[in-house]
Amino acid sequence: NLGSDTSINPFIYGETSISNIVKRFPINYVFKPLLFISVILMYLYWKNYNLLFKEILKSEKNLFVFFGIGSAIFLFFHVLFLGMEIDNKIFQTLRKLIIALFILFEIIAQFILATKLFKNRESLNKYCNILLIKIKLYFVILVSLVSAAIIVILLTSNLTSKIDYILEWNYFAILLFYYYFSFLMWKKNISF
Asked: What is the spatial distance between Cα 192 and Cα 175, in angstroms, rounded to a whole number?
């Protein structure tokens, strides 16, 4: 039993939360380890972007690294606590704060990175697809605006758990596109 006795589609119908699914066998043995690997990959992503900016653009102060690595740290703690059922108000508040800070730091890091890529697009023309730099920037702006709207809605409305779950599943799926656009953006077979 994976949290439901029927087939579900939480992206559309919000039948369950991510944490409810991942605490069940056999997903609990796969999901969390993969997310911990994702934390390591996020750290390497931000560290390598910093190295690339230092190498290509001679840019020493790259603020996106602070927020990017911060988002990886908050994701680590979110994953660590994922699936834990502790009936304590402080723990529940801490979990909400950690996930909010993960999202906030991720959006800020991606916004700063996309802006910096866009500002230096002519210097990066040899290494990057300029159209994808623009798409990444527009995507980051759109996600930032949608995130602000969602925060206002969550703060001013008492939504059902189904709506919360739909937002949760879809929001995290959309965040993956940051990294997908970065993958597509860099030209292959370029030597530095």
From this structure: 29
**Residue whose tokens read 């008492």:** 158
CA distance linking residue 165 with residue 13, whole number of Å:
8
> By the 8 A CB rule, do 65 and 50 touch?
yes
Alpha carbon 186 to chain centroid, angstroms: 20
Cβ atoms within 10 Å of 17's Cβ, excluding its own: 17
Q: Which residues contact 54 (CB under 8 A, 6 or more apart)?
A: 60, 62
Kindly tell me if the per-residue pLDDT of 119 is higher than 60.
Answer: yes
Taking CA 101 as the corner, what is the angle to CA 71 and CA 121, rounded to the nearest 5 degrees? 50
pTM for this entry: 0.81
Read off φ and ψ for residue 85, nearest 5 degrees: -110, 95
Q: Taking the alpha carbons of 97, 36, 182, 46 in that order, is the dihedral positive or negative?
A: positive
Percent of the chain residues past pLDDT 70, beyond the cut: 94
pLDDT reported for residue 1: 46
